[in-house]
Design goal:
The structure is a single chain. This protein is of the alpha+beta class. It has a single domain, classed as 2,3-Dihydroxybiphenyl 1,2-Dioxygenase, domain 1 (Roll). It has an 8-stranded mixed sheet, sandwiched between helices. Strand 2 and strand 3 form a beta hairpin. Bound molecules: cobalt (II) ion. The site of cobalt (II) ion (CO) has 6 residues, from strand 1 and strand 5.
Length: 136
């Protein structure tokens, strides 16, 4: 089940450049983390209960590098917090929704994540994320 907006993901050429604007609004970077399996470095800005995720590519063939080459910097995805990503994955799949991955995978912060293809979500890349405790 979906609870709230967890974060908005923004593709940036450089976290060091991009952070200046957000920090000028008084927002603070909680942490910076590299996610090798996604080919990205991630900086999380705290915005109340939600966050802004700055995404910088770490290799030329990463999804963020491809996005930047096609569209330039900007909003990349909307992430909704789920209390059970596997259950949401199964429900969406049963309804014919196109998901990007065969099953949920580990993302930044050890979260379990899945993505809904934009063509099933009105042109929006939607990420579902569940806090990353170990699970059976
Ligand atoms: Co995200």
């Amino acid at each position: 089940m979906i609870g709230r907006i967890d974060h908005v993901g923004i593709a940036v050429a450089s976290i060091e450049e991009a952070r200046r604007f957000w920090e000028s609004l008084g927002l603070v970077i909680d942490h910076v983390e590299e996610v090798p399996q996604e080919g990205v470095r991630v900086a999380m800005l705290v915005v109340g209960e939600s966050r802004i995720e700055l995404l910088e590519s770490t290799r030329p063939d990463s999804p963020i590098a491809t996005f930047l080459a096609r569209r330039g910097p900007g909003i990349h995805h909307l992430c909704l917090a789920s209390d059970d990503v596997r259950a949401d994955d199964a429900r969406l799949r049963a309804a014919g929704t196109e998901l990007l991955r065969p099953e949920p995978t580990r993302g930044a912060g050890g979260c379990w994540i899945q993505f809904v293809h934009p063509k099933s979500a009105g042109g929006v890349l939607v990420e579902l994320s569940q806090d990353g405790e170990e699970r059976a």
